[in-house]
Design goal:
Helix content is 27%, strand content 33%. The chain has an 8-stranded antiparallel beta sheet with strand order 7-6-3-4-5-2-1-8.
Amino acid sequence: MQQTAGIDSTPWYRQAWPLLLFIPPGGAVIGGILTIMLAIQSPNAMVVDDYYKEGLAINQQKHRLNTAREQRLDALLRSDGKHLLLTLHGNEKAGDGELTLQFIHATRAELDHSVQLKPLGDRKYAAPAPAIPNGVWYLRLRPADKHWEIRTRIQSGEHFQARLSSDELGK
């Protein structure tokens, strides 16, 4: 006599439990492949090739910020989309010649650029405004001799107003 009442005769590959066992490892393999593809296709612009020189540059930046703090330098920068107008406040000796204003994008180094601000007299400077896409930007203002530096962070596009100072975070 044969008893077949409690036995399931369907093959194992047609049942649900093997599929549930294969999903986690299969998902891990697919996730690993996607991670490798992303790592290969997108450059990592945040990694610096020469980290030692960058570390030394941090000390120079602190020295420039301390010099600006001692001279009580700050500036008001306005942009109407066509022109930049900067008014410098603080020590009368600082900022007699041209000033360099760097626009540094928060995540995309290829968007970074510099603008030379020409003196207008009475500690005011002007330059044509560059095309600035909306986003987070860090601004650094330095004289030609790079003796001091003031900076700020903006989240804007073409039209903005910002106060540059010697604060550590540039706020």
